[in-house]
């Protein structure tokens, strides 16, 4: 049996952390490209084109690896539930990216792990002590601080980011019981298919005619697709390298990338409410991860 030494594990944790940082940076860049694209192209069309691009890439990967594009388990109940939540998450999060500051949408998204833990208690009956419940409540309080309901700074559009976050949390919960026979590339294929479904549904509801994207917008969409695939691949690498408990906390660095891109590219403001809420969310998430190890 191969024994992993302390120094080897430390090195693997470092490599895994670097993969996670790269993944979060790529996700943030993907969001920025999507936001740029929605300025001149209807949101539904952006979703459809983005989803189709991702589907083509994952279909090509499956073909090259001689893996099937469909297996019966794809239509299992957990997968159908996962797709439903993926459609919800993708649709409302892209709407949030398009209509509210990128930094606000990114920060609210970081509360997803807190909702996943709470959902695991309600759905799977997992045991969570009062300390982790307190951390969940503290993190959700951070979301409330950012959204500022009942104040002049409140915008109903910020609820879009919350709905997107809930959708992604539901997707992650459904992924826990998805059939093990469905590999990463197949999940990616149907994940991007969900984006297309979200785009079609929104396009029908909005009734906005499609436009032919100009070259700069087409390049932005291509950038979103490439960085989206890159982010997902780096995330899978991160989760397979080193200890999950050592690598996962670096997910929160996406918050820094999102805020930085919002400030530099879109001229967004960093408010005291944003700083306070972000701090509460990150502290809560890190505490829950730490408690999970003890």
Query: How many helix segments?
Result: 12
Order of helices and strands: HHHHHHHHHHHH
Q: Number of folding domains?
A: 1
Oligomeric state of the chains?
A: single chain
**For the report, how would you describe the main beta sheet?**
none
N→C terminal distance: 27 Å
Summing up helix and strand content along with how strands pair, one would put the structural category as mainly alpha
Strand content: under 5%
Radius of gyration: 19 Å
How would you describe the shape? globular
Helix content: over 70%
How many β-strand runs?
0
Compute the average pLDDT. 87
Task: Pick out the low-confidence regions.
Answer: none
Describe this structure in words.
- The chain has about 290 residues and is an all-alpha fold.
- The protein has one domain (about 10-290).
- The chain is about 75% helix and about 0% strand.
- The model has no long low-confidence stretch (mean pLDDT about 85).
Layout of secondary structure:
Blueprint: H1 6-37, H2 43-64, H3 77-99, H4 102-109, H5 112-124, H6 130-147, H7 158-176, H8 184-206, H9 215-240, H10 244-247, H11 253-266, H12 272-292
Helix pairs in contact: 1-9, 1-11, 2-8, 2-9, 3-4, 3-7, 3-8, 4-7, 4-11, 5-6, 5-7, 6-12
Quickly list its features:
single chain, 294 residues, mainly alpha, 76% helix
Describe the structure concisely for a colleague:
The protein is mostly helical.
